Amino acid sequence: MVVEFQDPTRDERPDVEDLAQEFVDASVKYFWPAIYRGDIEITVETPDDTLTADVESVPSIRPFVQAYEERTTDSQTLIDAGDVAGLDIPVNLPPRADGTETPDGSVRLSARLASPADDDTYLNNVALFRGAGMVVKYYDQSRVAYGDRNFFGVLAAGEARSEGTPSDSDREIDRFLRFSEPPEHDEWESTENLREQYQRGFRTALDDMFGTLRDGLRHLVSKGSNGDSLSDNVLNRFPIHGGGNPRSTTSAADPVFEIDSSSRFDGDAWEISGRIKVLPEEFDGWSADISLTGVGEDGSRYDDIPIDTIKIEQSGVTVSYDEGCVHLVVNEEVDELSFSGSSHSDEPADLVRGDVGATQLEILAELQTPEEGQA
What we know:
Layout lengths: L15 H21 L6 E3 L4 E3 L9 H8 L14 E8 L13 E9 L11 E5 L7 E4 L10 E6 L11 H12 L12 H6 L4 H20 L18 E2 L15 E9 L4 E9 L7 E10 L5 E5 L1 E6 L4 E6 L2 E6 L5 E8 L6 H4 L4 E12 L3 E2 L1
């Protein structure tokens, strides 16, 4: 209890009733998984009333609750508003610091296609949480949405993944993510605790999980999907550090694309270039997203760098821009293209201007095959 509580960010003290409702809303926003499961009960008392934190009482949270309720669905396609689809995101953990091997496992991604009646406060966000039932973060993935393909997503990790008894891998992933949270418990990132508890590879495990999460969302919200299974040719990611060698995350299946790219700063803007080649002989068209991100000394990503212009040498390619990310749609007659472009040159941030730091050029490519739909 804080006697005579007053929010220091406000000029005036709110009414007790309004303040009580804000406490309820905030409780539901960050603890709805635990409330939904019956792990905790939260009430806020005023001199005249007692308010209960109920997941149904906050409209902006209801779509996330539905996505979690139906997370075990077999559907991997979102067709109509209100539909829920989901898939497993693999997580490969490094051994513990003492050499103990850790089991590989997965976390569950589910998404609900938004409808016009939904509260859009957290539209195109993914709620990240583990067994504790507290939402660590609402992860903005607006870049994945396009047109009317808006969504609400949930990533249920660790002991929050399954409905029954958690597996050994669920428990280990829960432990891994717990050590990846900073004291504020508002992120899953590389921390000193992870460094002390696990051997090298913990940062790659996190990066790969988030990269596959984005790929999975693209698959779920894509209109072009037909069939309910995700192809073995999962979208390959090819992040390139400016001037360096490519570092790729690939599936065990044969690669679908051959991609080369680079970025450099010319004193005014970041110049990017690259080549994308389709390897299968038969396909019904393909698409690719190109984005540029700043990279810190520890390999962490921050500060998206908007791409201002892109030039494609081949015909048969449709180019569109969305918040600094470039989206390419390519017809079936084009099996290889080259591109070049540049970032904005009038941004004030040091990284955007190229004064400090490095960049990472990321290409997410997706192939439409006649036999399998999307690969």
